[in-house]
Specification:
42% of the residues lie in helices and 18% in strands. The protein is of the alpha/beta class. The chain has one domain: Toll/interleukin-1 receptor homology (TIR) domain (Rossmann fold, 3-Layer(aba) Sandwich). Strand 1, helix 1 and strand 2 form a beta-alpha-beta unit. The model has no long low-confidence stretch (mean pLDDT 79).
Length: 99
């Protein structure tokens, strides 16, 4: 499911891995409607993780953050949220809300 080498424009998905079952439903629905998404499951293991994530956050049209207690507890998610806030492209998404 994790495709990370797609063309712009795209939405960056930020979530805690513990929420992956719920988030994967949203990702599939968005991909099925034609949205281009980037999310961390597609990053190669030998990649410098923070630098790679930062580059993709900067290029994203918007960052969709799945807010949950797991997200808030995870330092990498908090870093992604802060980056999105500084770029002015944050879109919080509450757990369990689908469109």
């Amino acid at each position: 499911m994790g495709v990370f080498n797609i063309e712009s424009p795209y939405l960056f998905i930020s979530d805690a891995h513990k929420d992956s079952e719920t988030v994967s439903l949203f990702i599939k629905a968005m991909q099925n409607t034609g949205f281009r998404l980037r999310f961390d499951q597609g990053i190669e293991a030998d990649t410098e993780w923070p630098k790679n994530i930062a580059a993709h956050l900067i290029e994203a049209e918007a960052v969709v953050v799945f807010m949950s207690p797991n997200t808030v507890a995870y330092q990498n998610c908090r870093n992604e949220i802060n980056s999105a806030l500084s770029f002015g492209c944050l879109f919080p998404h509450s757990d369990g809300i689908y469109f």
